Amino acid sequence: TTTTTTTTTTHTHTHTHTQAPATPVQPPPAAEPATAEPGVLEVADRIADLNNTAPGASGVVALALKRGGVAAARLMARPIQAAWRSGVVPPQWRRALGNPVAKPGDPYDPANFRKLTLIDVGAKLYVLVILHRIRPWLEPQLVDEQHGFRTGRGPGDAQFVLQRLAELAAQHGQHVYALFVDYRRAFDCVDQGALWAALRAYGVPGKLVDMLAALYTDNTITVVVDGFPSRPLSVRAGARQGCPASPLLFDVYIDLVMRCFARKCRELNVRGFVVQSNVPGRAPAERELSYQLCADDQALLYPSLPALQAAAGVLQDTAREWGFTINFAKTKGMLMQPPTAPPVDVPAAFQLPGGHSAEVVSTFKYVGSVVQQDCTQRAAVHRRICSANIAFRKLRPLLRAGCGTTTRTKRILYNAYVLPALTYSAAETWALTPSAWAAYHTVHNAFLREMAGTRLGPHCLSNDA
């Protein structure tokens, strides 16, 4: 449930009158205080949590620490405990290596690269210890509409809510005016001073906040291209790339942005959909549904165009106050009108406050799932079938009949690579129609026949059989 917001806190000169949860959630009682110095066993547990990614400037890989057992944990615990006591982190923990990875498109455009950032494994362990302790404070206080970077949640939850809203709209003959918002470099626009104030407002002990802030002080990054390093570049803003805590810290920051957005919408009486729940044996309940978030991937959902336009104006102003910029070139609109809703003319673009506009599209890929204007899953089913065909084509030398691969190995490969590509998000979010199920069965059985070396014919089993 979403925590009621009543307390007002001031973060920086540009972020005033922002609201945090009224009563910070207290984590379950622990055997030791959250600020207690970590021991060797706790460091060993955090080593087990490390991803086997490329090393930072020190060259120490996580796999080596995992193979080192207790001896490696004891070795890594020394600098962590020293930094814990003094509040001062080693200089190498504040350095990072940047490796730009080209995206599809123009290789000569500097903006067309992903930033792959590598930090020291000691800094990762230090942050993981802190993260393991602050997560119980922060997770229960985030808005329910946020599904990104959260324990037990993911893109499938956002897809389910959006699909369920489309089904309810079809059931009641309503339109859904959606705006899929794209922020320009959202992670790099986080105000660090406001972030530390927000953590304190959410009840995180000051010592843990100060230790995180120490890792963000005097940060530098060295960009390596073709083996040639640049001079160290200073980093003074944004969530730290490559840091294990950055996803949760970004959730906290954008959580405050959305709380301010929701408060302003209430003041202006801009309301989204009101969804009612009638569960037998329980009192009827209702809640407002006006947006969904998966990290910074946002969808505004309103029953009318004027309400959507008003909410977009509020979001634009609120985002600007917190340092975010909406990229209207990539922001798309959609008028979802199920067959049961009265037909209306679909505009070429939604006109938004400030002279901006958002192109109206008939399909949109939101956090990995295709959203369709007519509230059906035809485009999504077609996309999943294409993905499964690509996966099967890559493995055809190992899966086709007579290739020498055992039946057991074929089954393992098919279940591990092809079947997930075919059914991704279908079981979690879709209410499949008989025609969609028939398409799935046809493709699935075609794959199985090719693996077994059989063909459809007058004396062969049909798909239904």
Automatic annotation (TrEMBL):
Coiled-coil ranges per UniProt: none
Pfam families hit by this protein: RVT_1
Bias (Low complexity): 1-23
Superkingdom classification of source: Eukaryota
Entry's transmembrane regions: none
CDD domains given in the database record: RT_nLTR_like
Lineage of source species: Eukaryota, Viridiplantae, Chlorophyta, core chlorophytes, Chlorophyceae
Taxonomic source organism: Chlamydomonas euryale
The protein, known as: Reverse transcriptase domain-containing protein
Residue ranges constituting the Reverse transcriptase domain according to the UniProt record: 82-371
Ranges for region Disordered: 1-37
